[in-house]
Amino acid sequence: MLIGVKIKMIREAFDLTQEQLGKELHLTRQTISSWENGKSYPGITDILAISNKYNVSLDELMKEDIELIEHFETIDHSLNKQKIVYAFAYVANVLFLAVSVLSNYIHVYPMYKVTALIIGMIALFVLFSTVQQPVNLYTNKWALLAIVTAFMYFLSIAIFRGVTSNNIDEQTGIYVSAGLRVLLLTSSVYFIPQLPLRK
Question: 165, exposed or middle or buried, with CB in 10 Å at 0-12, 13-18, 19+?
């Protein structure tokens, strides 16, 4: 791996220890050692930091390092796959929400409700595990408003359904399942502003 050798040469030219270079780049000594020994690769931001801090061109750092280029291509390919999986899960999540909301106003067969619930749970798991840039609810007020509105809407429907039953044991079961459903649906709404094509 050429870049590890080049980083070592730069470090020695500036008379730095691995620990000193690590401190300057806000990394550990072990990370620098791992790069220099060819056990791992620096990220693109680390390469840019080294280039800027030590006046070395990116071309000089990365030129002819086929392993590094293949490493970045593998990461890029993996991210593209992840985006495709996220897009399918996003569509499944939207369909789950649509069926859940429509079932409050029109008759939907229980089989379709259960299928939508299973698909929704799988979609949510995939969305949580593949999301690239989660929406920050502290900074994105519209996303926060959408989630609070969805929570209140689903909660009001759950309470209305619970009140319609006279049996106390049945009411308890309805409230527990309704609470889980509200949580699931509100979590689904969280992903609506996080479009698959968002940069």
Answer: middle
Instruction: Give the CA dihedral 87, 89, 91, 94, nearest 10 degrees.
Output: -140
Q: Judge whether 48 and 58 are in contact, CB under 8 Å.
A: yes
What are the C-alpha distances in Å from 127 to residues 89, 121, 144, 191? 6, 10, 18, 8
Annotate 2-20 with b (16+ C-beta within 10 A) or e (fewer).
ebbebbbebbeeeebebee
Rounded Cα gap, residues 150 and 158, in angstroms:
12
Three-class secondary structure of residue 167 per DSSP: coil
Do residues 46 and 7 make contact, with C-beta atoms less than 8 angstroms apart? Answer: no
pLDDT, tens only, 20-79: 999 988 889 999 999 888 888 888 888 888 888 888 887 777 776 777 777 777 877 878
Contact 175, 162 (CB under 8 A): yes
3-class state of residue 197 by DSSP: coil
Q: How far apart are CA 132 and CA 196, in angstroms?
A: 9
- Distance between CA 29 and CA 52 in Å, rounded? 20
